Amino acid sequence: MAKGNKSDKSGTTKLHSTKNPISENIRGSMVELLQVHLATAVDITYQTKQAHWNVKGMNFIAVHKLFDELHELTEGYVDTIAERLTAIGGQAHGTVQAAVENSILEPYPLDLVKSEDHLKRLTDSYATWSAAVEKGIEEASEAGDPLTEDLLTAVGRGLDKSIYFMESHFQS
Where is the Ferritin/DPS domain (predicted)? Predict the structure, then answer.
């Protein structure tokens, strides 16, 4: 799924001691899963801000404001994912450098200007992450971690709504 989602060079996830009742094996696999989603959330947060800063054209103010609202939503996902990850004994890797290494998204083009181009490109990124979130929901369910499953379900619901808001600009 990710370019490199292991927490250290040996390929095993290091966990902090916790009284969390989930088994260590499940916690380890959920930390790895959540690291990928944390990196992707950081990436999409700044892809959205990149669009916000650089958008031009028809309906500028509406799209500019939409991108700012979407940025705030995705920033919330970053915090929620990182806090779940650390609550189950993980160490959140939330830096931009970690996002570059672990995000599932393609790099965002730095030369986009037109609102429609930003809307289409961001929609692609959100859809890519949404599909991965759905797989993560299944993985968390199969692992027996209903809280991570619920967290990812909430993120997925928000991503679907964001996709709807963006696609509505170019659908008829």
Answer: 32-171
Per DSSP, the residues of 88-138 read: TT-----SHHHHHHH--SPPPPTT--BHHHHHHHHHHHHHHHHHHHHHHHH
Cβ contacts of 164 within 8 Å, gap of 6 or more: none
Compute the distance between CA of residue 12 and CA of residue 108 in angstroms, rounded to an integer. 30
Residues with Cβ within 8 Å of 73's Cβ and at least 6 positions away in sequence, in order, are 158, 162
pTM: 0.91
DSSP 56: B
Maximum Cα interatomic distance, the chain, rounded to a whole number of Å? 54
- Residue 87 CA to its chain's centroid (Å): 18
Residue numbers of the chain with a pLDDT score lower than 50: 1-11
Distance CA 170, CA 119 (A): 8
Do residues 71 and 93 lie in contact, with contact meaning Cβ atoms separated by under 8 Å?
Answer: no
